[in-house]
Design a protein that fits this description.
The chain is about 10% helix and about 45% strand. The chain contains 2 helices and 10 strands.
């Protein structure tokens, strides 16, 4: 089984929405719901520009509090079918988000 994440845009700023798709490609050894969790890391460029001391204390990377979890209800079967599931994640504060920090873990 292969899992891929693709973002609609490379960067999204505060007030925007991170959009993309999760693609699951079979074959797999079971069927049923798959729990996936997408976590994003946000680079603090804006914080560095606005409050250098606070940024230095916090370190160069922070975790975005708004992670996204969802169910892929119909997994591909053993035939190797593909399923693509869209996602939308609001960005709650003023910081750029890059796909370089995107991680996917399966639960």
């Amino acid at each position: 089984m292969r899992i891929e994440i693709a973002l609609a845009r490379e960067e999204v700023f505060s007030g925007g929405v991170l959009e993309g798709v999760v693609t699951v490609t079979g074959p797999i050894g079971y069927s049923g719901p798959l729990r996936y969790w997408i976590e994003l890391e946000v680079f603090q460029r804006s914080l560095v520009a606005q409050e250098p001391e606070a940024a230095a204390a916090a370190g160069p990377w922070i975790d975005l509090a708004a992670s996204m979890a969802g169910d892929v209800a119909d997994l591909p079967d053993r035939s190797g079918a593909r399923q693509t599931v869209p996602f939308r994640i609001p960005i709650p504060f003023d910081a750029p988000v890059s796909d370089r920090g995107t991680r996917l873990s399966l639960r």
